[in-house]
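Researcher: Let's do a round of design. I'm pasting the structure tokens now; please hold your answer until I've finished.
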């Protein structure tokens, strides 16, 4: 499942590609036909993320404020299998896909990835967080007078079509239309998001300290903290030096504020680059062992049994709340 920084990158991509444009909306699969009909011909006013939820406001006119009753909000949660796939002409600088990995089959049957360049969208790709594959440059996009929207591939729930490009949504866990009150109701169920400027870290601190569950579980509870996933959970707890098994109500305020600050830092880096890299340069081992490529990117995630980059103790792992947890028993003893 994409972590929160990916959804923020997706929000930025949709706004840069379609902001202020009147779009066609279709549901080739048919499961979102009524919703697509309501969005068809509407103007995309903006795009924002809260945790792993994407919210996109549409209205009949570009000059309508987002808090107006005429605004219809599209909410999408990609879940494990959802993805947005993009295509367009030379005026449409876009990633190939964001979300679950997707390949597009070229004219000769080869598998290719479409990468954008020359804009804020550069580096946005749909490879999984743990692998971030790059299959090399894709064929050049056609000029506007030659480009035609491709036929939908797979079960496309929603297609957004502009003058210069298309965005196809497949496999989401949630795809629905809401009014402003509905958006507010969803957001009330979510904890603060470290990547949002309106986030309140005190709400995160209070939510953790009133619970007895282990901190490692609480960081994945989207009602406590929105956006962090398994990688960020493991890495920030190591970086701050806190045991994932310590009960939330036994973690001091200073430690929790340090966790929040660290998450805000490394998630912002992920948003900027499209890759989760948490290892400080001074901790990258030289030479890097071929059997431990993750050591260049992560301290503990996917490094079970290997030496901790700071103390040499073997990293441990355990299934906790249906997710694999990684930690250093020496660096995170408290």
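Researcher: That's everything. Go ahead.
Model: Designed sequence:
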């Amino acid at each position: 499942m994409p972590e929160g920084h990916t959804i923020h990158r997706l929000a930025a991509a949709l706004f840069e590609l379609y902001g202020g444009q009147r779009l066609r909306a279709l549901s080739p699969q048919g499961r979102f036909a009524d919703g697509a009909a309501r969005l068809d011909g509407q103007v995309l006013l903006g795009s924002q993320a809260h945790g792993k939820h994407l919210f996109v406001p549409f209205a009949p006119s570009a000059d309508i404020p987002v808090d107006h009753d005429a605004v219809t909000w599209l909410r999408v949660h990609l879940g494990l299998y959802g993805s947005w796939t993009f295509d367009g002409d030379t005026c449409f600088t876009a990633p190939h896909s964001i979300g679950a990995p997707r390949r597009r089959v070229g004219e000769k049957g080869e598998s290719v990835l479409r990468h954008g360049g020359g804009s804020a969208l550069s580096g946005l790709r749909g490879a999984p967080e743990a692998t971030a594959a790059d299959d090399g440059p894709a064929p050049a996009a056609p000029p506007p007078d030659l480009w035609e929207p491709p036929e939908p591939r797979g079960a496309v729930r929603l297609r957004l079509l502009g003058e210069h490009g298309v965005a196809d949504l497949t496999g989401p866990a949630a795809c629905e239309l809401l009014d402003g009150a509905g958006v507010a109701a969803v957001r009330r169920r979510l904890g603060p998001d470290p990547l949002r400027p309106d986030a309140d870290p005190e709400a995160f601190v209070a939510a953790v300290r009133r619970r007895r569950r282990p901190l490692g579980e609480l960081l994945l509870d989207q009602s406590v903290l929105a956006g962090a996933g398994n990688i960020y959970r493991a890495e920030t707890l190591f970086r701050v030096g806190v045991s994932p098994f310590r009960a939330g109500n036994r973690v001091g305020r200073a430690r929790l504020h340090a966790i929040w600050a660290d998450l805000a830092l490394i998630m912002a880096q992920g948003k900027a680059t499209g890759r989760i890299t948490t290892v400080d340069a001074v901790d990258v081992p030289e030479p890097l062992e071929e059997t431990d490529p993750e050591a260049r990117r992560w301290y503990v995630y996917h490094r079970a049994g290997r030496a901790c980059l700071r103390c040499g103790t073997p990293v441990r792992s355990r299934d906790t709340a249906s997710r694999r947890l990684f930690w250093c028993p020496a660096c995170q003893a408290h």
